[in-house]
Amino acid sequence: MIEPYLLEELVAFSRTGTLAKTAQQLHVTQPTVTRGMQKLEDDLGVQLFDRQPNRITLTATGRHAAELATRLMAQHQAFSTQVQAFDHAQRVLTITATLPGPLLLARQIAQHTDQALSVTTTFSPIDQATDLLTTHQATLVLTQRELQTPTLESRYLGREKLAVNLDQFMYQANQTTVTFAELRGMSFLVLQDIGSWREVIQREIPQAKFLYQTQPSAFREITTYSDFPYFSTNLSRFDPHVATPTDHRVRRPIRDAAAQMPIYASYLKADRQRVKPVLAALRAHWPDD
Amino acid sequence: MIEPYLLEELVAFSRTGTLAKTAQQLHVTQPTVTRGMQKLEDDLGVQLFDRQPNRITLTATGRHAAELATRLMAQHQAFSTQVQAFDHAQRVLTITATLPGPLLLARQIAQHTDQALSVTTTFSPIDQATDLLTTHQATLVLTQRELQTPTLESRYLGREKLAVNLDQFMYQANQTTVTFAELRGMSFLVLQDIGSWREVIQREIPQAKFLYQTQPSAFREITTYSDFPYFSTNLSRFDPHVATPTDHRVRRPIRDAAAQMPIYASYLKADRQRVKPVLAALRAHWPDD
DNA sequence: AACAATTACGGAATCCGTAAAAATT
DNA sequence: AATTTTTACGGATTCCGTAATTGTT
């Protein structure tokens, strides 16, 4: 059985090219690496190096072994982190999402639940959702699409509906709803982290300009002291920081189909019983409008 | 970094259920396993076991860790074997196939080549072909279908064409070729190991009976002292053992499309230069008929 | 002269087995 | 009484660093 530290030395050597630099990188002495690579060759029963008095290089087999060792080391590392993640997931039910809106509601729920609930502050691309669940980095992922695999299942929660907040004297505000087309060419204040909504507004509103703000505090300040329109959804009300009573804008829902997203909760089938009360709470507090 | 022997002990324990049996299975003493599992918990920083004075059981995390460890150990094992296989493949070009016919020709080639060529005696299902190549267990796989992946490529070699050897006095022998339909209900002597041909004849010949023989020697003997028809192909001539001059049967090619198979040579793109002369030899010796 | 790899030697850490203890079935 | 786990102790293996050697650039 090959010892991991030998694989580590091999991988390091394949990157540095000399035993001296390898030793330096691993914080050991040269003789240690020399002996290590000799032992690795001996354990495998294979020649990995071409040796000259002052120079040592990988053979073709050695390069292949280093390539395989790199992957194996990554999996080795993943083992520890996954075990620890699983252990953590047993005590804390972690919720993440691909959109900010559902996370706001989730945070609300978390405060009124006796269970240990952790709601992440950042969100991930939807193509990482499956990985987050199977590696137990999250127990619940809120997404705009269903995820169906042999070990995963999804449950529909409700819809997130986009609205735009316009200055009350703008002519587009003289109707109960608007369309993306009617927002053509306008400039919007947008928070940097709005997940999948970003591609929606960029795709649907022609020739629009988006002033992305990284800091939520800066976003609030600029909205207060300017007339730029900004977006919100039916889930924005759960944002504890967005309470701006002195807003001169009016909220106008967007009629387009693309302005609505169905939200699903995805989780491991093995966790079905654990997430059940959380799903019930999310559905119970989902706004009707 | 988790030591492999600790993972091995965990995997063994998850199967045996007690430390005593685990120790027995691994040929070590109980205290060794006790300390090992304590160290594993310590290294991972996670509780894997529920301990009672006379009983130790896996926690949920422990079961999950054992599951992950099982897979990791398999990959760990695969590392060594793959490095050794790669090393071996550098000196010996190994050819395998999904059909016996192309292998016969390959053996012929191997004798007239200066290069170190190894031709396997058994053949594998076609769905294992990709794995054989990527794990370097074979450098060349002869199959009836093309294999196309980012790292693999296939080259057409020729066709293998099925024929049936009938007693010269049978009425079906009164024509230059026959069809599968005309063989309806007959009984055939067939070698057990004929690869993908087996499903062809079973599917195409209605109500036929197949007398499968495991031993080639028994097959030859029965063909000699009986009148049962048997199959051969345009590649059978390369079989050094099948030279039976005193055969009372006549060879009749089968007309159906299903009685012909295109044969491709698949290999890693990285091996293209190495296999080039072998492919040329295979194509050069491929029979025209 | 500087650098890279290897070998030799001694110390330190670790891992194992034997023996003994504690507790359960 | 037999089985299972755990701890204690001593020995043996192994792994590492320092020092010295060899050979190259």
Automatic annotation (TrEMBL), chains A, B:
Molecular function per GO: DNA-binding transcription factor activity; transcription cis-regulatory region binding
Keyword Cell inner membrane annotated: no
Residue ranges annotated for the HTH lysR-type domain, each copy included: 2-59
Highest taxon above the source species: Bacteria
PROSITE patterns: HTH_LYSR (PS50931)
Keyword set includes Transmembrane: no
UniProt keywords, alphabetically: DNA-binding, Transcription, Transcription regulation
Family note: Belongs to the LysR transcriptional regulatory family.
This protein's name: Transcription regulator
